[in-house]
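C-alpha cells please, single chain.
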Amino acid sequence: MDRDKLPKYSQRNPEVRAAYEYALSNPEILSNIPCYCGCYRLGHENVGNCFIKEVKEDGKVIFEEHGANCGMCYSIVLDSKELFEEGKSVQEIRNYIDNKYSSYGQGTDTPKI
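Here you go.
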C-alpha cells in the first residue's frame, strides 16, 4: 500500500492507518458492514463511509477524516479485516459486527446482505 496516497491524519497510529488501508483496498466488504458510532447522522451508509467519502470517476479517492477520530469506526474495520482473513464470509462478518456493536446505538442504514 502506497502510504503517500493516504491523508496525513490516517497516520495517527498503526490501527488508524491499518483501517484506512483496509477501507481503501476492500470497499466491497465494508459496504456491507454497518457502523454503530452514530455516524448515520453524517449521512454514512456503512463503515466504509467513515474512511472513504467518494471515489471519483477518474479513480481519485476523497477520504473522510471521521474514521481517524473514532475508535469504534476503526475497531469495526479491524474486526472485519481479522474475520475476513480468518475465512469468514461477509454475512458472518456482518452478523458478528451487528452482535458486538448494536448495543451502542443506531447503526447506519446498511442494506442486509
